[in-house]
Amino acid sequence: MSKQIATKSIRLTTSRRSAKGTRVRNGIPYSYLHYLLEAEKVQLSRDLHDGFGQELTILKMGLAEIMRANRSNHRLRAQCRKLSSLVDNLIENVRRVSTDLYPSLLGEDGLFPTLEWYFGRFERQTGLRCRWRRTKPEPETQTDKATQIFRIVQEALTNVARHAQAKAIEVDTAVRNGEFILAIRDDGKGIDREKITDYRSIGLVNMKERARIIGGRLDISASHSQGTVVRLAIPLRHCSAVFGTSQNQEIVQKLNEALAEQLRLITHGKAIHEEIRSLKRESAKK
């Protein structure tokens, strides 16, 4: 089955989940579809970095060569410097988007180094203090599971920066009773209890879903005087498990085949309607 159809199946399934906050129907495992979606982000991140990023670098080198070959043409050199500055901005934006899609540190160094990098970046971008009390050693975590944990942290900190009016964030990680525990606390204004369970709170729904598909649980508690606490707990045996089982792959294949059949029927139906309209036009002319 083509990659395009596989991507469409992911989009249809995830959007239905996000819009209604309900479980996926027909027994389709959301976890594996979500895993495939993250794989698409990884590929797109690499394409941006290795393709577009490298071409921009070559363009910058070409501008530098033009400047060296035209040392006496001050007007041309000034224009090249402006263009080179624009290229620098484009290169930085490509790197930022690529990193947001998928931090390469996750695959290279693991979860904890990626979190340490992200907390530092978050502080520089927002001005919010982010203190991390970490457990040692780092629990063994498969890359696909580490990606989901990182996305939960990313969403939680983004919510704090946008809505909490907080001054500081504390992150605690620990291993207790066979579980990996991650807790995020802020000193902001808190969140209304109704929003915690509201399916229209897409960010919170996505965080809970990410926790569920890696076998964990996510609890959110809030107080108007003590801010908000997001607590993630994952059994260690789930941290080291792999998503891509043959059963999930078989179900996704069946989903793709069903979608392809639906697309065929839609195309056939459009052709019939077009033929009917054509006959009506010919009849009207007579």
What is the molecular shape? extended
Poorly predicted segments: 1-29, 244-248
The strand order across the widest sheet is 1-2-3-5-4
> Helical percent range?
55-70%
With helices defined by DSSP (H or I, 4 residues minimum), what is the helix count?
10
Number of domains: 2
CATH homologous superfamily caption of the largest domain: Histidine kinase-like ATPase, C-terminal domain
Sketch the topology as an H/E string, one letter per element.
HHHHHEHEEHHEEHH
The biggest beta sheet, please?
Answer: 5 strands, mixed
Number of strands: 5
Percent of sequence in beta strands: 5-15%
Structural class, by secondary structure, is: alpha+beta
| CATH class call of the largest domain | Alpha Beta
